[in-house]
Amino acid sequence: MNNEKIIRQRNIRLIVGLGNPGPRFEYTHHNIGFLVLDELAHRLGASWKSSDLMEVAVARLGDRDVWLVKPQTFMNDSGKVLKSFFKQGVQQEQVLIVHDELDLEFGLSKWRVGGSARGHNGIRSMIEYAAPEAARLRVGVSRPARREDVHEYVLQRFKQSSEVVEKAIFDAAQKIEDLFQSDDS
Fold first, then answer.
1. What is the pTM of this model?
2. Cβ density class 150-170: b for 16+ within 10 Å, e for less
3. Number of neighbours of residue 118 by Cβ within 10 angstroms
């Protein structure tokens, strides 16, 4: 069974977009998870509400209400937001994480279930806070030419045209919406 079919069967209730808070990081590679959730919230008419740890919106996807969450804790502590949702009965299998992926071509997005953090500190934090088997939508941001530049690269603003970036965001949001459509549609 492929990853999309596995994820489709999980009854996703919580979608976490990874990124860093604040205007300095707003349109950077590391914040593509936030940008995808912003697009999704916009499409679904969901409004963001802020707290110390996160921004949250509730959206109707398919036949269910789903929390959209943007942690405001910075990437390395993103997993902290999971605690309050686990207390409300969300299971780790019902979590979908949207994040940047260096090992995918820019704009390409792929499903993954569980696995290691592969050097991504936001994913590492999610795993530490009890979501090692969470579903993931990895959104490609490509890799910098030199490996030692990764830390700087993920915090840089996009060099691609705004049309290319918007298409990547749009396509990833569409992939999430498609996941929630029934198999009959």
1. 0.93
2. eeebbeeebebeeeebeebbe
3. 12
Strands 49-50 and 14-17: unpaired
Could you tell me the two tokens for 51?
A: 């707290």
10-residue averages of pLDDT along the chain (185 residues): 86 96 93 98 98 94 95 92 93 94 94 83 87 89 81 87 95 96 57
Residue whose pair of structure tokens reads 């921004």 in the numeric block: 55
Q: Residue 102 contacts by C-beta under 8 Å, 6 or more apart in sequence?
A: 141, 142, 143, 150, 154
Q: What superfamily would CATH give domain 3-179? A: Peptidyl-tRNA hydrolase (3.40.50.1470)
The answer to whether the beta carbons of residues 184 and 171 sit under 8 Å apart is no
Asked if residue 23 lies in contact with residue 129, where contact means CB atoms within 8 angstroms, the answer is no
Q: Which residues are catalytic?
A: 30
